[in-house]
Design brief:
Number of strands: 7
Strand order of the largest sheet: 3-2-1-7-4-5-6
Shape: globular
CATH architecture: Roll
Oligomer: single chain
Number of domains: 1
Largest sheet: 7 strands, mixed
Order of helices and strands: EEEHHEEEHEHH
Number of helices: 5
Length: 164
Amino acid sequence: MASPADELPVALRGLIPTPSGVGVFLGHAEKVIAIFVDHSVAAAITMTLQKVEKPRPLTHDLIGNILAGLGAKVRKVVINDLKDDTFYARIHLLQENELGKNFIEIDARPSDSIAIALQLQAPVYVVRKVWDAATDMSEVFDQAQAPDDDTEGEGEGEGPEAGA
C-alpha cells in the first residue's frame, strides 16, 4: 500500500470523446494521463461539471446521498494500480459519529471514483508508481484541444460560402 507521500494530486484536464467511449484526462502542466470510460459515466461527469440540475438522482447522486445519510464523507480518491492497461482506484471515506471516527477504503472503478469525487468536491490522487507507468498523453490532449485549422479561417475557399 502506498503512503500519502506517494500520492500525486491531479486535476481533471478535460474529456474527449472517442469512437468507443470518452477519454478522461487527468494531470497537471508536466504530464497528463488518460482513463477511458463509457459514455454514461462521462455524461455523469459532464453534468457535474456543468452543474446540471437533475429531476431525480442518478447513480452517482444516489451514492452521494447514501454516504451523506450514513454520515460518511469522501476524503479522497486514489488511482492506485495499473494492470494490463486497466486502472484501479480506491475511494477513501471518513465516517464520524458519536462513537468516533471510522476510515473506510472501497475498491471502485476509476471512472465512478472520479465522478463521485467531482460531485462531492473531493481531491483525486494518482499513486507515483501508476503515474510513472502510465503513458504521457499530454501531446494527444493538446492536439485534441487545439482549434481545427478550418474553423480559424485558414481553410479559405472551403465551406458553404466558397464560390458565392
